Amino acid sequence: KQYRIAVIPGDGIGKEVMPEGLRVLEAAAKKHGVAVHFDHFDFSSWDYYEKHGQMMPDDWKEKIGKHDAIFFGAVGWPAKIPDHVSLWGSLIKFRREFDQYVNLRPVRLMPGVPSPLANRKPGDIDFWVVRENTEGEYSSVGGRMFPDTDREFVTQQTVMTRTGVDRILKFAFELAQSRPKKHLTSATKSNGISITMPYWDERVEAMAKKFPGVKWDKYHIDILTANFVLHPDWFDVVVGSNLFGDILSDLGPACTGTIGIAPSGNINPEGDFPSVFEPVHGSAPDIAGQGIANPIGMIWSGAMMLEHLGEKEAGKSIVEAIERTLAERTLRTKDLGGNADTTACGKAVADMVD
Amino acid sequence: KQYRIAVIPGDGIGKEVMPEGLRVLEAAAKKHGVAVHFDHFDFSSWDYYEKHGQMMPDDWKEKIGKHDAIFFGAVGWPAKIPDHVSLWGSLIKFRREFDQYVNLRPVRLMPGVPSPLANRKPGDIDFWVVRENTEGEYSSVGGRMFPDTDREFVTQQTVMTRTGVDRILKFAFELAQSRPKKHLTSATKSNGISITMPYWDERVEAMAKKFPGVKWDKYHIDILTANFVLHPDWFDVVVGSNLFGDILSDLGPACTGTIGIAPSGNINPEGDFPSVFEPVHGSAPDIAGQGIANPIGMIWSGAMMLEHLGEKEAGKSIVEAIERTLAERTLRTKDLGGNADTTACGKAVADMVD
Ligand SMILES: CC(C)[C@H](C(=O)O)[C@@H](O)C(=O)O
Ligand SMILES: CC(C)[C@H](C(=O)O)[C@@H](O)C(=O)O
Questions:
Q1: Which residues does ligand 2 sit against, CB inside 6 Å?
Q2: The pTM is what?
Q3: Which residues are the signal sequence here (chains A, B) (predicted)?
């Protein structure tokens, strides 16, 4: 079978890291006899917006909805387009309309990447953050009353549905069950957020009954962020709402040294729609155009994509090539104390793939 | 003038650290000629709840509403009373009904306390988290529909009022203006939480105009938590909503080694009602009764209380005594690698006060 991948570089450094992501994907596909076809799209970018006055063509769903996966760079350029236009007009649209209800991100301390935490070595930190990706705190329900007066107020609802909560918890418990430690941690704040969060806890308890082999615990989000710093070795699979998952999946990679190398998947597990794989970092306008961006987040996202497609060996070969590359100072980009540029780093990983 | 302080030890280790907090307060008051009178209350505790079926007497406001401040230990014992009864029946009631709209917590790396962050020394990390303490995400507006069916859902509103947002921002900007760096950072998430957070940003911009001497910036909460770990030296005053402030004021102290020594003030700046000073740690049922709890969070809260009352010198003398105590390994409690028990550590600080 040949996989059809929609390629969307997007904005800023998205355009610079994408060629390296593709280079390494091609190398791994070749070595492992995987057939991949790439279709390139220029939408979901400032350039496209400037020409067309919208982020994507009206028929974007037809254009990319039948692909096996979407390989995505970065989107957003706040100085040129407001976030609610650029992000809600592309990235968040994908998540909602392709029902990518799982946002999955590894937190893993890699060789060669200095951790900001004292005395942590590769192997000490190795867990997954599973984030609900379609509802929760990112609702569009709410509004403003008494504008421009002293009585002005705004409200916004957090919405949690049984369907939405149960399916993300099921995914997280299944992931925990598949791992050696079989340990799940739930992020809550039921002592302060007194309606939605107790509901989340209630559904976690119900789901846990179906997975008797999984040990589970829960922490309020405040102390959980503290424990990411103090005890990152406590975690195996951490599940959270849209907002809590968002926070934990930036904090986790920071604890392992940099969000510059972190990958993510926006996954529709049923396969009714394509999933999106993208680096955690954004478009980074401040360093765009200099050729110095770290391509590892993009490359690692490619590995996650291959694994999602069922090509475990090819995916694994990329992750191992990343580890070997990062271990060599000269092959790392500047942000990690090396002196390679984006292309040199990408080529190094491609060469290491076997 | 004699200050009248309401003393509420509460639950668990609250009862063990309170005597040390009082011991040090008395020592500092004596040295600095400050007259303090303590009134002791047993409510806001499991013991009281067991006897009376409620957390506080009906006339709690008359009992403590006229004091100059409230010195509070800890409350909550989830195994015995649900949080929504214990916390919402005391701590959160104080915040709301005494209009303590500022939650103020220092983040400061102290000598002798090993930081989980690599290569950070005392002096490198020294900032304040200013948290909105009465509204925002901790609302009681919301509910559940279609219970026990597949269509079940819950909603909860975040509520931000012009009054509520502006007054916390004003407090934070004033605090920033009073500090050498004059730098304020606002926590937002306006790219994902699309109604309340853009409003927060809008009010920050409006308030900033009134404080031209203050440099300010804003970060989305996800990358902000990452920056607490990667660049704690970037911050001076950080202001956030009820939830974001809660998260940042646990994460910050964790980055400086432990939440066991962090103090906090729940402040009504106008002085219409008493403010509450309490350690950040909770009642810690797991170590209660062993005499090993670290009393520094309680003692430091006493220093914040004295400063709030206008007794700057006496407050400062306590903070300095804490620094001298922590610098000696043998005077620290077990959680900080020492071998002092709660009382020995408290006595050491009291002796150091000058
Ligand atoms: C106990 C809990 C409700 C409280 C909060 O979230 O406000 C606590 O975490 C705090 O920070 O004082
Ligand atoms: C860009 C932003 C809306 C997005 C989010 O918060 O979901 C980003 O932070 C992410 O984590 O993918």
A1: A 87, 246; B 191-192, 222
A2: 0.97
A3: none
